[in-house]
Amino acid sequence: MKHIAYFALALHDVPRAIVDQDIKRFVTHELLQIKTERSLPDSWPGADKIQDITSRADGLFIYAATVCRYVNGPRQVSASARLEQVCQESVAKHKSTDSLDA
After folding, report:
1. Is the pTM of this model over 0.85?
2. Could you report the per-residue pLDDT of 62-71, keeping only the tens digit for each?
3. For residue 45, cis peptide bond before it (omega within 30 degrees of 0)
């Protein structure tokens, strides 16, 4: 039988800067895929939008993944319009987990 090695990793022990960097890479990859699939302009989505989503994610990959899926919604709706909608929402609305951390 093969010896299987593993490493237990507690994600809450990973420095926030590393998590944010990984989220930014993920968002960049996903949005660039959407840009390619939908033949969007070269300037789309813009570094500011990627940074905005990364900041709003507040260390939560699920937020970033959900935003990317939302932006890539039905083809009848513009991905640009959906991205603008997400980025225009008040940041205060996205701090719903604060009460859980108290």
Report:
1. no
2. 999 999 999 9
3. yes
